[in-house]
Amino acid sequence: MNKAIFIYDQLAVCGPSEEHHTTAIQLRQALGLGVLGSLGASDLTAVPGTHQRGGLLLTARVLPMTKRGTRGTRPRKMGIMISLTPADEVEIEAREIARGTQHAKIEGIGIEQLQRAALAIDYDGSEVLNPRYWTN
């Protein structure tokens, strides 16, 4: 079983329906191969998502933030949960697999913003999210 699954609520990752699979396919298509390659994405899995509306769970290699608030020097495996919300918006959450700590969360975006939001997580600067792609 994929270790990334255990960093999320078990209800969010068990028993995807056909609707959840369809949503996961749409999210994967919206991300595109270039973004998935940039993230070093693997283990793509259809899941119910955090709101039970469908989602996509994947493993990515991202530079983590340290306890000192600086960027780490080596990428770590992170579980990325992309979920459809009840408002038909998209939510992305990145968690470090080894520690289970939240790295980043982006809420309330449209599917057309998914690529930019995902790329913002993969960054080597001093902020958690790349400001060229995402500002809060």
Describe the 3D structure.
With about 140 residues, the chain is an alpha+beta fold. About 20% of the residues lie in helices and about 30% in strands. It has 2 helices and 5 strands, in the order αβββββα. The protein has helices at about 20-40, 115-120, and strands at about 40-45, 55-60, 75-85, 90-95, 100-110. Strands 1-2-3-4-5 form a 5-stranded antiparallel beta sheet. A hairpin with a 5-residue loop joins strand 3 (about 75-85) and strand 4. Helix 1 (about 20-40) crosses helix 2 (about 115-120). The longest helix is centred in the first third of the chain and has 22 residues, at about 20-40. The chain starts with 17 loop residues before the first helix and ends in a 15-residue tail after the last helix. The model is unreliable at about 1-15 (pLDDT under 50).
Strand tally: 5
Anisotropy-based shape: globular
What structural category characterises the helix and strand content? alpha+beta
The succession of helices and strands, N to C, reads HEEEEEH
Short description:
The chain is α+β, with helices and mostly antiparallel strands and 136 residues long. The chain contains two helices and five strands; from the N terminus they run αβββββα.
